[in-house]
Amino acid sequence: MSVKIKVENLSKIFGHNIKSVYKKIYEGKTKDEILQETGKTVAVNDVSFQVNEGEIFVIMGLSGSGKSTLIRCLNLLTRPSKGNIYIDDENIVTYNKKELQKFRQKKMAMVFQHFGLFSHRTVIGNVEFGLEARNVHKEERYEISKKALAATGLAGWEKKMPNELSGGMQQRVGLARAIANDPDILLMDEPFGALDPLIRRDMQLELMDIQDELKKTIVFITHDINEAFKLGDRVAVMKDGRIEQIGTPEDILNDPKSNYIKSFIQDIDRSKVLQAKNIMYNPSALVSAKQGLNVAVREMKATRISSIYVVDAGKRLKGIITIEDAIQAIKEKKRIEDIISDKYCSTDEDTYVQDLISDATNAKYPIAVLDDENRLKGIISKSSVLSSLVD
Amino acid sequence: MSFKGIMSQEFPSSIRFDLGQYIENFTYWSIDTFGAVFDAVSSVLLMILLYIENFLLFMPWWMVMVIILVVGWKVLNLKSGVFFAASLFLIGSFGYWNLMMSTLSIVIAAVIVSLLLGIPIGILMAYNNTFQTIMQPILDTMQTMPSFVYLIPAMMIFGMGMVPAVFATTIYSIPPVIRLTDLAIRKVSTEMVEAALSFGASNWCVLTKVQLPQALPTIMAGINQTTMMALSMVVIASMIGVKGLGMEVLISINRMDIARGVEAGFGIVILAIIIDRLSQGIADHYKVPE
User: Fold this and answer.
1) Distance from CA of B133 to the nearest CA of A (A)
2) Among the listed ranges A109-113, A299-303, B282-286, which one has the minimum average pLDDT value?
3) Do residue A114 and residue B191 have CB atoms under 8 angstroms apart?
4) Shortest Cα distance from A352 to chain B (angstroms)?
5) Number of domains in chain A
6) How many helices (DSSP H) and strands (DSSP E) are in chain B?
7) pTM for this predicted structure
8) Residue B230 has pLDDT above 90, yes or no
9) Is residue A185 situated within a structural domain?
10) DSSP assignment string, B27-87
11) What domain range is A377 assigned to?
12) A111 has which bridge partners?
């Protein structure tokens, strides 16, 4: 995975005559200390991180943490006071006006919290704005914009005005406008923050679907830890202009590096964050149809389990057999294929734990976790589901 | 200095600062130095004026009425269109048709010049804080100075007649459109401007495709105000010999001619109502949804 964005020692200080502040940043002073000593506000305090191509990188923090300022530095809407930003190995801080314009037209697109739609233009007029800025021909940009609207579920709404749309739909227009430009990188500034919770959930799922298809590099800002952990491949937690910790959601859950982060993750509804793949484990025993009933019974006895999954050579799941059925079948001289049962629950790796709870409590056997080709990736027992919900 | 001297109310006559003299000298100097420039400006203004006036007087009176009826109908409603046309007819029946057209042409010329100068200045103010800081006191002065004071420099530079009238009217009526253009552009939602910039739009593109369309309703309100102020200047302008309804009012005051005063005043009021309603109606058409 290549590095798409590399931020090096980025700082943003508001106000004039800020040279005196640089020394203090170098000395590692905090935002509060600098405010007290110089009266200047440090929005971003010596931040460094990398974003890999194709990942969703979430920057999470409360108000005042500097996350909005930081994301605006990435496309130079806010000019950094100090530091370098490399995108595809080019330092965008050194760009002149023309280069910056080209860069914004081609490499990056932004989605805003309050949508940032042009209220005097139709929906499609909004979506084609980026293309218009690039002087793309009228018919071509209409076609591209139509496709982008269809991709976000708004086909048919081209000629409407933004004020005729609900909040969720307006944000879809914002999203369509961003992807119509086909940028490498999407910057999203709390894009679902102004939407109500039900719509927010829909939009999160839709974003993940779009990402599956388009595989953009996304930098996503939020203050909602559940959203951060749900969407992020990696998450950076910001406080007072500094990044406190960067890691995958599991890393942060398992190894929070400060009390601040610890108090954050207390609020996490783990069932909404953890997925099947996080809590599954390898079955202690498996049997293939070829091996036959006697082997199956022996395995079950040895590992003291009362049911066992049957797979084929490619580890594709055939079904489940119980020890009672197996012993009975041996007596009746039947084969393994005759007693294979399909009365098991299965799920895929990405299912959230909260959706497994009812299956786990009602199922007789552990839940089988399967991939697209029906291969058994792991199993989940009732106890593993319930225990994952607590620390 | 005696005690009585210090405590007296009189401002000491020995302390004199002849600001007026300095400005007068400056004015004469600039007329001498920039005479050619002023002449050029005068010719352009006169050209615009005559063009408009000829246009208005060229059309037969009933055609003007029909046009006002149709315009009023389209912009507002049929009732308004009919009312406007009927009012014009009334003024015509006072014998003031030609004078009304003369007055109207001065107002239109002044408004056109105000817009051509005012909107760009407003845009510059919106984009440059320093320029705005410089302009604010100038605009404040322009709006508080009594309107007939403008006649003095106008007369000195351009003599008497329609051109100085347009000049004075323009100075008097330009502040609203400048201020409102500045305000309207500054008030455009920051997120919208950020969005436009983030897609790599040039500053010109942001101005013409986002800020001006968003600012248009407020700018239209500025145009409406400017127009009304221009109309209010006509009576004052008549003091420097501009023929029109304003002069009729002036004469009627001088001669205590009530009949004439009522008819001429009425004419001005009718013009004011028509222009105000029409420009408001046009402004409403430009209302941008939130």
Assistant:
1) 19
2) B282-286
3) yes
4) 35
5) 2
6) 15, 0
7) 0.75
8) no
9) yes
10) HHHHHHHTHHHHHHHHHHHHHHHHHHHHHHHHS-HHHHHHHHHHHHHHHT-HHHHHHHHHH
11) 277-388
12) A188
The upper half-sphere exposure of residue A140, i.e. CA atoms within 13 Å in the direction of its Cβ, equals 8
In angstroms, the separation between the Cα of residue B290 and the nearest Cα of chain A is 6
Asked if B18 is an interface residue toward chain A (Cβ–Cβ < 8 A), one would say: no
Residues A227, A292 share a domain: no
At A247-280, the pLDDT tens digits run 988 888 888 888 888 887 877 777 777 788 878 8
Tokens of A234: 């990696």
- The stretch A198-224 carries a mean pLDDT of 90
- Under the banding of pLDDT at 50, 70 and 90, the label for residue B16 is confident
CA distances from B55 to A24, B81, B85, B89, B106 (A): 71, 21, 18, 19, 13
Shortest CA distance from A76: residue in chain B: B198
Q: B1 pLDDT band (50/70/90 cuts)?
A: low
Cα-trace Rg, chain A: 26
Q: Residues A195, A69: one domain? A: yes
A-B contacts at Cβ under 8 angstroms = 77
Decide if A24 is inside a domain: no
Q: How many CA atoms lie within 13 A of B151 on its CB side?
A: 16
Residue B290 has what pLDDT? Answer: 55
Interface subset of A 116-145, CB within 8 angstroms of B: 116-121, 129-130, 132-134
Domain boundary among A214, A234, A269: A269
CATH class for the region spanning B20-58+94-285: mainly alpha
Let me know whether A251 and A294 are in one domain. no
Interface of B with A in 170-229 (CB under 8 A): 189, 191-192, 194-202, 205, 209-210, 213-214
Assess B287–A contact: CB distance below 8 Å, yes or no: no
Same domain, yes or no, for A335 and A258?
A: no
Percent share of chain B, pLDDT over 70: 98
CATH at A370? 3.10.580.10
Compute the distance between CA of residue A340 and CA of residue A325 in angstroms, rounded to an integer. 9
* Cβ within 8 Å, pair B199-A104: yes
Find the closest chain B residue to A135 by CA distance: B201
> Touching check for B113 and chain A: CB below 8 Å?
no
Q: Please report residues of B whose CB lies closer than 8 A to that of A120.
A: 213-214, 288-289
Q: Are B199 and A112 inside 8 Å of each other by CB?
A: no
Domain positions in chain B are 20-58+94-285
Structure tokens at B226: 């400017």
Length of chain B: 290
- Are the C-beta atoms of A367 and A353 separated by less than 8 Å? no
The edge-to-edge listing of strands for the beta sheet with A90-91 is: A41-52, A3-14, A82-87, A90-91
Two structure tokens written together for B141? 């002065």
Q: Do A171 and A287 fall into the same domain?
A: no
Dump pLDDT digits (tens) for B72-98.
Answer: 888 888 898 899 999 999 988 988 888
Residue ending a domain, among A250, A269, A288, is A269
Question: Which CATH number is A226's domain given?
Answer: 3.40.50.300
Residue B235 in this model has a pLDDT that exceeds 80? no
| Bridge partner list, A317 | A311
Q: Which of A52-61, A107-116, B233-242 is predicted with the least confidence, judged by mean pLDDT?
A: B233-242
Question: Is the pLDDT score of B104 beyond 60?
Answer: yes
- Are B198 and A104 an interchain contact pair (Cβ–Cβ within 8 Å)? yes
Q: What is the pLDDT of residue A86?
A: 93
Instruction: pLDDT band for A165, please (50, 70, 90 cuts).
Output: very high
Report pLDDT digits (tens) over A182-204.
Answer: 999 999 999 999 898 888 988 99
pLDDT band at A103 (very low <50, low <70, confident <90, very high): very high
Q: Do B214 and A120 lie within an 8 Å CB cutoff? A: yes
